[in-house]
Each structure stands twice: as structure tokens, then as C-alpha cells.
Design brief:
114 residues; elongated
Length: 114
């Protein structure tokens, strides 16, 4: 954040009767809230992705064996997710494996380039 914007926020807070301790508390609370919202969004995205994947597998590919295979698949999915979150597998490896398995390139997706 630019120094002028910080000064502006401090001056505005002082005009509204908020001292520096209160302002720091407000900032910390806002940061925590935004982190919680981001985590919730990520959790929902993972569950939506898992649900869509399981629905397709169960209804289009594994109709007869879905009840047995879906739980196995979910365990493997969550295991790979845990491995990524623990740093055992990195993002580049996941994308490379995904490209190998799908035969599709993902370079055209801007957020993947970051």
C-alpha cells in the first residue's frame, strides 16, 4: 500500500476518533476475515470440482462399479491434494501430470502461467 494511502487512512481514523491501537485491531480483523473468506472459497472450489468429477465418473464411466470405485477415487484425490499442500508434490508436477494424463496442454490459461 502506498505511504500516502496509509497516511490518509490514519488521518481519517484520527478524525473519526479511532486511535492507532484500534486501527491496528481493525486492520488485523479485516486481514483475518479475508483469509477466512479465501479459505472458504478454496474449500468450496475443491468440493465442487470433486463433486463434478465424481458425478461424471459415476454416471458416464463407472455406472456398474461406481459404488466401489468412487470412494477409492476420492481417497486418491484427497491424498494427492494433501501431498500438494504438504509440499511433497509441487504445482508444476501436477500440471505436467495432468497434461500427460489428459493429452491436453494448459499453457493458454493465464492464471496457470503465474
Amino acid at each position: 500500500m502506498a505511504k500516502s494511502k496509509i497516511k490518509h487512512q490514519i488521518n481519517k481514523a484520527k478524525r473519526n476518533g479511532i486511535d492507532m491501537t484500534q486501527l491496528a485491531f481493525i486492520r488485523e480483523s479485516a486481514k483475518k476475515h479475508s483469509e477466512e473468506m479465501l479459505q472458504e472459497a478454496m474449500d468450496k472450489a475443491i468440493l465442487i470440482n470433486l463433486s463434478i468429477t465424481c458425478e461424471i465418473l459415476a454416471h458416464d464411466y463407472w455406472e456398474k462399479s461406481a459404488k466401489k470405485r468412487i470412494p477409492e477415487f476420492v481417497n486418491k484425490y484427497l491424498g494427492l491434494l494433501d501431498a500438494y499442500q504438504e509440499g511433497v508434490v509441487d504445482y508444476g508436477q501436477i500440471i505436467e501430470d495432468l497434461q500427460d494424463v489428459t493429452g491436453r496442454k494448459f499453457e493458454d490459461i493465464d492464471w496457470l502461467k503465474e
